[in-house]
Amino acid sequence: MSQIPLLTIARSYGKPLAGMILGALSIASSHATTYNIDPAHTNVRFAIDHFNTSTNTGGFYNLTGQLTYDPKAKTGSISLVIPLNSLNTGNKAFDIMLKSADFFDIEKFPLAHFESTKWHFAPNKDNSEVTKVEGLLTLHGKTNPVTLTATKFNCYLSPILKKSVCGGDFTTTIDRTKWGISKYTLLGMTEKVDLTIQIEAAKQ
Predict the structure, then answer these.
(1) Beta-strand (E) ranges in the chain?
(2) Average pLDDT value for residue range 122-135
(3) Residue ranges of the alpha helices (H) in 15-136?
(4) Hey, is 126 helix, strand or coil?
(5) What is the spatial distance between Cα 144 and Cα 134, in angstroms, rounded to a whole number?
(6) What sign results for the dihedral spanned by CA atoms 133, 175, 140, 94?
(7) Based on the number of CB atoms within 10 Å of its own CB, is 109 exposed (0-12), middle (13-18) or buried (19 or more)?
(8) Are 129 and 183 part of one and the same domain?
(9) For the whole model, what pTM was predicted?
(10) Which residues form the Lipid/polyisoprenoid-binding YceI-like domain (predicted)?
(11) Domains held by the chain: number
């Protein structure tokens, strides 16, 4: 049944019923689909300048969480759990150093979390392109706001999973000292860390 006949019927029975149906239509139109994070295609990679010589890189893997997305209503949310023990730089000795109390201190803080607070979309009302995601990053026992810039975001029907998958790539630069990780900054090592986040999530 279309929306116009529903409203016509509702008006004939008075305002209370009309209000109920209008509310139901609003909820249905803004219902976001929920997706489960795919750990195989979701990761956080970092790059940090090494005393103005080279660039140290590494990543965190096996992330979990959920994503919700409604392109018509231009709404979304993302919740990520980042296991810091999954850190991999390609060098075991370097991994051990970064996991120590001098840096991530994973024995005390084994997990990091990201929770989005606001999604931004293209200003054109007919364009549902995701442009930015604001959120809160909890790391090393501290929580600070970060803004992720979307370099791409899309949904497709996975031929392997046989279900809808949404995901994209995001970038941001953070000041590690805001999370209490300040080792070697007094010796000239930058506090700025570039992050690249790959996210994919499959429909529940």
Answers:
(1) 33-37, 43-50, 54-60, 64-70, 75-83, 111-121, 130-139, 142-157, 164-175, 192-203
(2) 92
(3) 15-29, 92-99
(4) coil
(5) 11
(6) positive
(7) middle
(8) yes
(9) 0.83
(10) 34-202
(11) 2
What is the domain range of residue 66?
A: 31-203
In this structure, are 127 and 163 located in the same domain?
Answer: yes
What residue type is assigned to position 40 of the chain? A
CA dist 21 and 10 (Å) reads 7
Residue 163's Cα: distance from chain center in Å? 20
- Domain at 111, CATH number: 2.40.128.110
Q: Which two tokens stand for residue 37?
A: 């994070």
Q: Distance between CA atoms of 15 and 34, rounded to whole angstroms?
A: 33
Distance CA 37, CA 200 (A): 6
Tens digits of per-residue pLDDT, 44-96? 999 999 999 999 999 999 999 999 999 999 999 999 999 999 999 999 999 99
Average pLDDT, the chain: 88
Q: What does DSSP assign to residue 166?
A: E
Q: Look at residue 200 in the predicted model and tell me its pLDDT.
A: 98
